[in-house]
Design brief:
heterodimer; A: seven-stranded mixed beta sheet; B: six-stranded mixed beta sheet; four-stranded antiparallel beta sheet
């Protein structure tokens, strides 16, 4: 059983389009995250949600809008895609208190042409 | 602000030998956590090991151990008896805080480990 899943795994799209990435976790965690890994493999947090409430927004352009319908799901919608948005986007989840190890999804490889 | 430094962009090791991947950190928080993740060429991020700042003993998980030296602010990963499947990128991370006080993971730039047969 997949603990943290993301769809799609690959996404190729044209500049200016709008796209969404979905994330689901079945670990019973109450906190979920979006990370961006750039072409140099550097990982940086974008957003974090705890119990459907946004708690971290790390100066991400407002073209990126996360949505958490419930604590098991965190989706990422990107408007007006730009070339620089090409990256791997990882979803992760953890407990808010107690063991706080973050478990990552398989990643979504986004290529903007 | 929290910072993680991994000074080894790439490391090579012979199969069955041990290897140490370096990680130093900087934080002013008295309570923090240190993590190591493995990213194979397939791309997924795999959690390996965790060390809490107040843990008295070094963390171990199978062939992985964390050499935690608090005074030196280092948290090196030791992989014993390297296997070909250990070839991957390895990331050191620290549980840090945003300006608003929320917790987040801060990652180093990673070390690419190649295990030679």
């Amino acid at each position: 059983d997949t603990a943290v899943s993301q769809t799609p795994k690959y996404l190729v799209t044209q500049m200016g389009n709008d796209k969404s990435i979905k994330c689901e976790q079945n670990l019973g965690h109450d906190t979920m995250y979006w990370y961006k890994q750039d072409s140099k493999k550097f990982l940086k947090i974008m957003f974090s949600y705890n119990n459907k409430e946004l708690i971290i927004n790390e100066t991400v352009p407002n073209r990126f809008s996360p949505k958490s319908p419930d604590k098991a799901h965190l989706n990422l919608h990107i408007n007006s895609l730009e070339l620089g948005d090409s990256a791997v986007y990882f979803c992760a989840s953890s407990h808010w208190t107690g063991p706080e190890t973050q478990y990552f999804g398989p990643g979504t490889r986004l290529l903007v042409l | 602000a929290q910072k993680i430094t991994q000074t080894q962009p790439g490391m090579f090791v012979q199969e069955k030998e041990a290897v140490t991947l370096d990680c130093t950190y900087d934080t002013s928080d008295p309570s923090y956590g240190l993590f190591w993740y493995k990213q194979p060429s397939s791309g997924e991020m795999i959690f390996l090991i965790y060390q809490g700042s107040y843990d008295q003993q070094n963390a171990t998980e199978g062939r992985y151990s964390l050499n935690f030296q608090k005074a030196r602010k280092s948290a090196n990963l030791v992989i014993s008896a390297s296997q070909l499947g250990d070839s991957a990128m390895y990331f050191c991370a620290m549980r840090g805080r945003t300006q608003g006080g929320s917790e987040k993971l801060v990652f180093g730039k990673g070390t690419k480990l190649t295990v030679n047969p």
